[in-house]
Amino acid sequence: MEALSGFFAILDATLRVSTPLILAAMAGLFSERSGIVDISLEGKMLASAFAAAAVAAVTGSAWLALGTGMLVGVVLALVHGFACITHRGNQVVSGLAINILASGLTVVLGIAWFAQGGQTPSLGSDARFMPLELPLAEAARAIPVIGTFYADVISGHNVLVYVAWVAVFATWWVVYRTRFGLRIRAVGENPLAVDTAGLSVSRLRYSAVAICGALSGIAGTYLSTAQNASFVREMTAGQGYIALAALIFGKWRPVPAMLACLMFGFLDAVAIRMQGVVLPVIGEVPVQAIQALPYILTVILLAGFIGRATAPKAVGIPFLKER
Amino acid sequence: MSINTSSIPLPAWLEIGLIPVLNIVMALFFSGLIMLAIGVNPIEAVGIMINGAFGYDEAIGYTLYYTTNFIFTGLAVAVAFHANLFNIGGEGQAYIGGLGVGLVFLLLDKYLPMILLIPLGIMAAGLFGAAWAYIPAWLQAHRGSHIVITTIMFNFIASSIMVYLLVNVLIKPGQMSPETRQFDESSWLPFMHEVLGWFGMEVTRSPLNLSLVFALLCCVFVWVYIWRTRWGYELRTSGQSEAAARYAGIKPKTVIITAMCVSGALAGFVAVNEIMGVHHRLLLNFTAGYGFTGIAVSLMGRNHPVGIIMASLLFGVLYQGGAELAFEIPKITREMVVAIQGLIILFSGALALMLRPWVVQGYLKFKPVDEVVPA
Amino acid sequence: MVDINDADAGGGTSVNPPAQSGDDSLAIELRGISKRFGAVRANQNIDLKVARGTIHGIVGENGAGKSTLMSILYGFYQADSGEVLINGKPVAIHDSSDAIAAGIGMVHQHFMLVDTFSVLENVMLGAEGNALLSHSASAARKELQRLADEYQLSVHVDSLVSDLPVGEQQRTEILKALYRHAEILILDEPTGVLTPQEADQLFVVLNALKERGVTVILITHKLREIMDVTDTVSVLRMGEMVSHLNTRDTSMSELAELMVGRKLESRNYHRDGPLPPATGEGIEVVNLGVIDKSGKQRLKNLSFEVKRGEIVGVAGVAGNGQSMLLEVLSGISLPTTGHFVINGQKASADEPVSPSRMRELKVQHVPEDRLKLGLVKSFTAAESSVLGYQRARRFNLRGLLKLKTIRATCRRLMEGLDVRPADPNLKSASFSGGNQQKLILARELEREPEVLLVGQPTRGVDIGAIELIHEKIIEMRDKGCAILLVSVELDEIMSLADRIIVMYEGQIVAEVNGRDANKTQLGLMMANAHQEPVQDSVA
């Protein structure tokens, strides 16, 4: 029973740390499926996290914070789109610029506005997304294993965790079951075909990039107003890149990408528990090794040693109509 | 009725003169807006920055010390660019370059004379940096793994390795902060104020050391390598057209690996400046984002050593001037420089061609269309 | 994007001058269409009338302006001046959706299909009708079935496009247009990638379309097709419409003359006597086979030889292994099975010979794709003029390239073959196709090859340069060089080659004597439809 509840605690933590990864991975999926490389998930999350925390601190409203976070994500995504779609700039360079800009600007503004060394003021529980008790969670506890799983793992998260799950399903549905999704997939594979079919490549890519911005905005908001109670400088700490890795790991498909996020989240949850633990045979496992594992696994995947990850064919290539 | 202006050639003074300058002006304009937004007078700020970067000899020393780092990482990005490779891994390669220096000095600094230690340290920095670039390069060449993604991943992996090693293995016993012991003085690269002192010139202490000379030598080396040797010719050919390279008997795989190793070595040389020149011990995060700045430097410098020196100097001014600014104006922090850097990468890199159509249009007003033949 | 229209006299910005209705029995009417790119006048004052329900051909050489004209019709480019009338009414076509709305469908030379999509998804894309795919899909499936039956366009609706043969991909493109209710169908060089059988099948479809009132515009440089299927034909030359004709009233030779603007003298380069005796082999190929990475057999069991002082032509529809053959013989690709001996050097999978070694052996290669292989577009002419010889001792001194020598050599090469402008510092891309080709030829001939591999030497090359290139090839033959000539231009092969081998799906299907070859017979062989047993046709 002790072991089981310990395991459930890890699963519970897994869900919490996977949430921003899942949201960011779905964000990246829209962008990359439409043919726009997005290494700026990190920067968008960071900027949104700051904006959300700042607004929550000032207004005390978590929902207003969410709206602002999403707005900032969309604005940065449109900057990325302006560079990559309208001006056919290098998509990696543009993404990098946004990451660096966000990394600098969040601290500059944070200090100018709040004078707390780059942090935002600590948020009270009204200004945050707090854990929700799902219906019947307490009653379910009576049922062994399944019931406690429901009560300890499924229930008790903030609303954004559940939003992330919905986002995965919604992404899958939009991408594979709607006209918009068909067009997004097409524009990432062969934009000329989309253009000759009488559709605007730019408009499709801008919409995809905007959705990407909104989802990264939710991810960022989660970091500063749900998982934590304030913005801390560099609080994304590479999670945008991990989400990108998960997206590649999931071969640019929603459900496998989510599973990759859960796996990376699980590794993270385990890493925290493993600190200082001495395992038989192996000895003490360095936390850094587990933290680096997502990156190492992604490299191994990219090397083609575990299946092939084929990117959308037109990803990263600016679309030039006049040849 | 619009035509594709990208096919209209411009004279060099517009293409590599005016347009890049306009791009930087745009970036600085937006930086000014940010300053206004936080209630700082941008004109005053520029004054403080320029004075902070050039106003006194210590400031100049600091500016050039930063410049040195940017020259190394800028060259690293540029060499890879010429082979059509985007090396985002300069940060990790520089970090691992530092590991090379650290290991060599921890093992040998008590036993060898300076004349051997310094070349060994430089070689170790280059070799370790190259080795860290070699793996993504090999994966790109032989397995088709996209080098942008793998080098990003390798930055994080490098960081984890360094944290582990410094916290658990290389740390000086009996101390809390994750650093090695200080290396023996015989491994220190002479400071510039010392060198100038030998010639009787009195200069205030600054971190500027002989690495700057080495960086300038690297510029010459890169220029000769890329434009004056057959290896550079093959690298550029392969970067422009893999098919042409194969036709010409050049092995693109070899070029990828060579270019990345040279690139990684150049990035690794950041450790020469930082570890051998300034810190004299191995510590966490000594690369401080210099690897990423190298991308901006290379973009602004159009992948040419002369341009890279100029761009590095600009970033040197920004870094040193920015530090001064943070000191003078409490509302501003050093991160302002990071934001400016982001804007410069945006305008000089991703939006590099934004203003070109206008410039072309202006140019055409003065030149009859018939003389302009699309390339 | 910049508006340079004001520089163009006359036209002004009025693409649509006061609407003046035209003859509504015409599906398409173009009036005074002009388009220029910088100094290049791609289309000049073009008029065209195509009656509804006919098949109209547009012929012209490479670079005559056919593609520009069609791109204007489909909204890729905007004309600088002139107007387009559809069914007698002026229309403004700014992008593909305007063209589709006007009832224009286009089958591009390079198909506009999403490889990872099924035929159904490709057809639906942009014309889904409903925001939910499941609804659109069932409607589209029904409509596709109807169209396929009506026009004899059989396709596998649920197959991925990447799994389909080229002919079926093309049918998908046609279905895409019909699904959008196209009444005018434009096909750009549709038979370039097809076998003759597939081409015939296409023509059946085109006739079926015509019967149902669809107007078809066929852009091609193959005169045979014009004669076979069109009702009327227009000839483009150097951006201008030079003639409109009824196909019935014209002939291939008349069209050819109109296309090039002068009488064509058929030159015959064949030597007077037989091959000099005891010349020996320059190339000997034995059971050569290549299987590529995807497991596809690209070359199969090839055996032939080329004697010194002999030109062997390789004929075939593009994509039947000729390119691979050149790549293997020049050392760029490795054979999988068999071997070959080239200028005395044996090469096989186990004993690979690199391109550099080939060059040392005086085996020179003028590649098929000069822009991708033959030179580097962003390099100066001087830099491109040492491509492949960058390691040669005379261009290197102690690890450094001797730039002065390289420039001087380039200038000499340029003067030798009349490359214009003779400026070694100019970017390679800024030369015309003919001058690029001459530069490449000059570079390779300078090494005095003993074996010469030549691919498509005159593709996209102006007529003046063609003669010079052919003369140079003959000159090398007379010097005793063994020459393998790959070309899709049968005329070129027939006038140059001593012997012709015909390739089909990676195999040699026939071999004929150059002097005795005739076009019809070669055409049948290229389609692998000839009746004679393969070996007997060797003279």
What does this structure look like?
The complex is a heterotrimer of chains A (323), B (375) and C (539). Chain A is mainly α and 323 residues long. Chain A has a single domain (2-121, 137-302), classed as ABC transporter involved in vitamin B12 uptake, BtuC. Chain A contains 13 helices and two strands, in the order ααααααααααααββα. In chain A, strands 1-2 form a two-stranded antiparallel ribbon. Chain A is globular. The mean pLDDT of chain A is 91. Chain B has helices at 12-37, 42-54, 57-82, 90-108, 114-143, 147-169, 192-198, 211-228, 230-240, 242-247, 252-268, 270-279, 290-300, 305-328, 335-350, 356-366, and one strand spanning 2-3. Chain B has a domain at 68-301. Chain B is built from 16 helices and one strand. Chain B is 71% helix and 1% strand. Chain B is globular and about 70 Å long. By secondary structure, chain B is mainly alpha-helical. With 539 residues, chain C is α/β, with parallel strands linked by helices. Chain C has two domains: 5-260, P-loop containing nucleotide triphosphate hydrolases (Rossmann fold); 281-374 and 447-537, P-loop containing nucleotide triphosphate hydrolases (Rossmann fold), CATH 3.40.50.300. Chain C has helices at 66-73, 96-101, 119-124, 133-151, 166-179, 196-211, 223-229, 252-260, 322-329, 355-360, 370-374, 381-384, 403-416, 433-445, 463-478, 490-496, 519-526; strands spanning 2-3, 26-37, 40-51, 55-59, 81-86, 89-91, 104-107, 184-188, 215-220, 232-237, 240-246, 281-291, 297-307, 311-315, 337-342, 345-348, 363-366, 396-397, 400-401, 451-455, 482-486, 499-504, 507-513. In chain C, the strands form five sheets. A six-stranded mixed beta sheet of chain C has the order 7-8-9-4-10-11, with helices on both faces. Mean pLDDT of chain C is 85; it is low at 1-19 and 532-539. Chains A and B meet through helix 3, helix 4, helix 11 and helix 13 of A and helix 5, helix 6, helix 13 and helix 15 of B. Strand 1 of chain B pairs antiparallel with strand 1 of chain C.
